Amino acid sequence: MLKDSNCGELRKEHAGRTVLLAGWVNRRRDHGGLIFVDLRDRSGLVQVVFNPQTTPEAHKLADRLRSEWVVRVRGSVAARPKGTENPKIPSGEVEVHAQEIAILGESKPPPFYVHEDEAVEEALRMRYRYVYLRRPRVVRNLTLRHQVVQHMRRFLDTRGFLEIETPILTKSTPEGARDYLVPSRLHPGSFYALPQSPQQLKQLLMVGGLERYYQMARCFRDEDLRADRQPEFTQLDLEMSFIDQEDILGLMEELFTGLVKAARPDKRIMTPFPRLTYRQAIDQYGTDKPDLRFGMLLGDLTSVLAGTGFQVFQQVVAQGGIIKGLAAPDCGGYSRKQLDDLAQLARDRGARGLVTIALRKGPESVDALTAADIQSLAVRHFSVDEVKEMARRLGAKPGDLLLLVAGAPPVVNAALGSLRQEMGKRLGLLDPDLMAWAFITDFALFEWSQEDGRWKAARHPFTAPLPEDEPLLESDPHRVRAQAYDLVCNGFELASGSIRIHTPELQERLLMALGYTPQEAQERFGHLLEAFSYGAPPHGGIACGVDRVVMLLADEESLREVIAFPKTQMGTDLLFGAPAPVRPEQLKEVHLKVLEEALAPPAPPVRPTGG
User: Fold this and answer.
1) pTM confidence score
2) Which of 178, 226, 375, 439 could be stapled to 358 by a disulfide with Cβ–Cβ 3.0 to 4.6 Å?
């Protein structure tokens, strides 16, 4: 071994011990005699002192050191002189008096500082990922990720689950997103697909009698990216036989309650996890992934304002739309610019506009409001009694700001859901130390595709309907609810699952409702239908996004900060230069030809700017 100790683990109790360290030069400081080097490895930092009086050869070599050089040091651990301790690092009470040093590798000036946590342009972060990985923040995040995955494995192992790998090369099936396709050399014109999830495979494992399965599954989806989405990601995928929905939700609550306590004991959680139906979540929060760290619930004002003199609202109600609102606490004094910013946010989410009503602070209660206490550009359209009733329904008090949106239900809910989250952020209600978990249930089984003119599976076509809704499959599909559930936390969906169909008869009925002919059903799902005919147990499962869980636990805003080698927002890998053209002979082997009009000039390489 080139080292026998870790830099960040040295403490006062190690004083007097001779240690062999190896790592990177984090910083070097020359004080005109003594040279101080902060040596860094994965465990952290320790200060190494080179004294020209006691070790002249080592001091001479240390004079050459520069940032990110790789060195090995032999020296003795000693307590730092009183008053020179560094409380900012765990090893700050000690230093290592160097006796020998060896340079193991030199470094060019890095493209950005490693020892500072300043922002780095994404292109540089990705192009020089191996340098960025050295930052303590990234090391902490990847260590946390390891701890999360190990906790999940231990938890499931003690509950009788088997970790089983499933194929990466599979058949393209409808899973809700675009597949990544892989051409076959041996079968011209045919393609594998990379799995969006191991959905059918884990169901087949249940048919095979394995009863309890899980894996840390790699999944691939060719879809537009954002901060909490990557083209390839990892999910904790599990499936169970002979269970119902409550069994899975109970298991998940136990798993994540223990996980938070183990990985982030400083975080608070609310237990038991609240349960909301999809309809309750949309009605109260405007979204199916609500942030429950604060209130500010949405309220329906359609019945209050159906007869209002405001023509815009009258037209909305006449066309079957709704009017909803929320009360932002103590925001009645907002400026015109602040109100305009909120209106733009509502418009960005599809709303035609935003009506704001400020309630003056002063009256003892809403009931004591007078016309002089109400301020709004639309105030002439509402009576005082109407404003009072709106305030009551929204739980407002004097000094609050009412935000109203009218239109089609999906637009109204999306706009107010975004406004609620924005106001929660502005008012400091998003407690970073609280993880507010909740289960969302009773999703719709189908959604209407305007583009295709038919019903589509809201999730995947293997989700079981609620038993009481099965008679509606053919006659009234839009009313059929699914035995589906999500686990959400702080405004993010972290897990999603369902109870599955396990009989060929019900599976065929659902496929027919989705517009598949019997022949198409056999072509695409015949293997699953046949498997069900050999005795399939009732089963269900859930898949949890490991990347998103770690992102929340690490207090990061992007998945890219908790993945070792992520893709950019455009799905590119700047380190390896992928995706990239391949040689003509490679295309010939898989019987493909690239259309000339599809070719685009390659992006210019990213070069370091020094640092």
Assistant:
1) 0.91
2) 375
